[in-house]
Amino acid sequence: MKTVKRAVTLALALVMLTALVSGCGKKTGVTFTAAVVGQITTLDPALATDPAEQIAVVNLYENLMKLRTADNGTETVPAIARSYRIEDHPDGTQTYVFTLRSDARWSDGRSVRAADFVYAWQHLVDPATASPYAELLSMVSGYEQARQGDLSALGVTAEGGTTLRVELSCRCSYFLRTVCTSPATVPRRADLENSVADGTVGNGAYRPGERESGELTLTASDRYYDARRLEVDTLRLLLCDTTEQAAALWDSGEADFACRMTDDAFFSESWTFEPYPRTTLLLVNQMAQQLESRSLRQALSLAIDRTALAGLPGGGLHVPAEGLIPYGITVSDGSAFRLIEGACIDNSDYEASCIAARELLGEIGMDPSAFGGLSILYAVSGINSDIAESIRDMWKEQLGITVELRGVSAQEMETALSQGEFSVALYSWTGEINDPTAFLDMWRSGSIDNVALFHSSAYDILLRAAAASSSSVARDAYLADAEVLLMEQGNAIPLYFTRGGMALRSGWTAPTYDGMGVYRFDTVRRSGN
Q1: pLDDT surpassing 50 at residue 166
Q2: Mapped to the 3 state alphabet, what secondary structure does 486-507 carry?
Q3: Which residues partner with 215 through β-bridges?
Q4: Which helix (H) or strand (E) holds 238?
Q5: Dist. CA 173–CA 180, nearest whole Å
Q6: Pick the residue with more confidence: 313 or 528?
Q7: Are the C-beta atoms of residues 185 and 63 closer than 8 Å to each other?
Q8: Where on the phi/psi map is residue 314: left (φ > 0), alpha (ψ -120 to 50), or beta?
Q9: 220 in Cβ contact with 233 (< 8 Å)
């Protein structure tokens, strides 16, 4: 009799468990439509470069960690990693040990294993992959050997099915926040290599549905560990070539959300603005003899009306630069660097700035009429010609300095920069990681990106101190000081930040934005729910 009761109890428990699991993945019937400026040619996480591709990837795949919107920026929370611990070593190296969720599943039902991350990260740094994001793992021990083809040297190992160990060759405060949330470092199945580019099997909140020209439909995955929290059952990504197309979809009511809109000709009051990791600036070649005076470089910066440049027709949704590091870039705790540190450049009173610029020239006894040999190098595309002409006119009008304009092709521009054949160059820099070092490291002595040949021992010391710091607060302070020093030297003259337009229909909560052009839609809810 007891055996019969036990069997009945077990059967009832099994029925209840089945109902619970089924309930976790139940259909809601809710559809959310997003118009995205960009196109999708691949869903391979290692090769996805267009933000539209990366948006699809982060919704099809889940990484060790993920970002969530916070009051002053974003916060980093566990995702496939249920927990982690950090081991600091006396030699300055670190070990991260992640414990994966036991309920993490691929959309075909197989468990997500630590080995899937090992395979993905080795594949990312494999020179045969030719991924533009391989350097994301440059802080992992054995990275250089792996880039030479010895993938086993990379310091990432699986210990059983759910423990992932990562050895870092140095402290890296942005490792969790940036590397472990990146679309490029999501797990990868070795047995599904031939279908990766189509995103057929993922481990994220959504799985691919219909794919047509100009549209990708994603459906909620009932295998997702947090499926019960998904309100949007069907996610439609409408892929647009232009802002005009995205704005039209928004205006017609077909799209609940539109993003990555950059053409101000179609601006509407319903738009809000999203930061983007790009700063347009003037590079001042440190080897240019006619610009060896720091006071002169500072005067040139002060005499630029950044508000006027940002407002030029066809300039998109630019804002005057307040430093080198744009809005959207975050510090160690996920707070926005620019909001925390404030402005390095005061754009509030252009007339006063011009007076200060002329005073600097007077202090060094410079006769503007005798100054010559200065030119502005720029690539002839977009509004670059208008920007260069405006700066030339500002310097002439405010300082009496005459400069020549040197418009060239993109290839000629690249060659001139690499060979140091310029005095001043108009340049746009896009950060590849969400961290201040994405903009500061390019000025470090010996950096391959330091085309202005800038050298400052004090600057290098600040960057080294930031890298070695065990305190996130101290690290952020060192990086802020480095930016201030760079502005004071005048070899980098920021002009404007790039931003994009977005619009969200009332009645919805916003998706999570990473500050780099990528959105996660698993947080979207109808307002009040």
Answers
A1: yes
A2: HHHHCCEEEEEEEEEEEEECCC
A3: 212, 238
A4: strand 234-240
A5: 12
A6: 313
A7: yes
A8: left
A9: yes
Does residue 327 sit in helix, strand or coil? coil
Any idea which fold 27-256+505-520 has? D-Maltodextrin-Binding Protein; domain 2 (3.40.190)
Give pLDDT, residue 390. 98
Q: Residue 20 is encoded by which pair of tokens?
A: 């619970």
Per-residue pLDDT tens digits for 426-479: 999 999 999 999 999 999 999 999 999 999 999 999 999 999 898 999 999 999
* pTM reported for the whole predicted model: 0.89
- 114: tokens are 């630590």
3 state SS of 59 = helix
* Tokens linked to 174: 């942005």
Q: Which CATH architecture does the domain made up of 275-499 adopt?
A: Roll (3.10)
Domain coordinates in residue numbering, the chain: 27-256+505-520, 275-499
Q: Which long-range contacts (CB under 8 A, 24 or more apart) does 441-449 make?
A: 443/486, 443/491, 443/492
Contacts of 21 by beta carbon, 8 Å cutoff, 6+ apart: none
User: Are the C-beta atoms of residues 66 and 79 closer than 8 Å to each other?
Assistant: yes
Query: How many CB atoms are closer than 10 A to CB 18?
Result: 10
Q: Which of 81-95, 194-208, 343-357, 501-515 bottoms out in mean pLDDT, i.e. has the lowest?
A: 194-208
CB of 276 closer than 8 Å to CB of 428: no
- Cβ atoms 236, 217 nearer than 8 A: yes
Gap between the Cα atoms of 342 and 334, Å rounded: 16
Q: What is the 3-state secondary structure (H, E, C) of 188-234?
A: CCHHHHHHHHHCCCCCCCEEEEEEECCEEEEEECCCCCCHHHCCCCE
- Position 72: which residue type? N
CA distance 31 to 290: 61
Q: What is the C-alpha separation between 517 and 519, in angstroms, rounded? A: 7
